[in-house]
Specification:
110 residues, mainly alpha, de novo design (two linked rop proteins), elongated
Length: 110
């Protein structure tokens, strides 16, 4: 959905800055989860999950900038932005839960 959003935004000075940052942050979430999942230890996996968590927070930050700017809101699909933001919040909650679970694992050195 983020890719569709970024591809659909018009060329403006502010969106030329925000859109690539949003794309980078949002795609980093799953990339770090995948990379961490292939780790050999819970400690390493936990480290990648924390990076994913930070990317999710950054994604939310960029989405809030889109929502907060009336000028930008008028030229983008705000419903799509709000849907992405809601899903990002769910991902944040899942990451928090998984990070806590990994920390509590008897095999964890996190």
């Amino acid at each position: 959905m983020v890719i569709d959003l970024v591809e659909s935004v018009p060329k403006t000075k502010s969106l030329d800055v925000i859109a690539p940052q949003l794309l980078r942050a949002s795609t980093s979430i799953s990339a770090n989860i995948a990379e961490g999942y292939g780790s050999y230890s819970n400690k390493e996996y936990g480290r990648y999950l924390k990076i994913s968590f930070k990317s999710a927070l950054e994604t939310d930050n960029w989405l809030r900038k889109l929502i907060d700017s009336k000028r930008i809101r008028d030229v983008i699909n705000i419903d799509l932005v709000l849907k992405i933001q809601a899903l990002t919040f769910e991902v944040i909650k899942m990451l928090i839960s998984l990070i806590k679970k990994i920390k509590q694992s008897p095999l964890s050195n996190a």
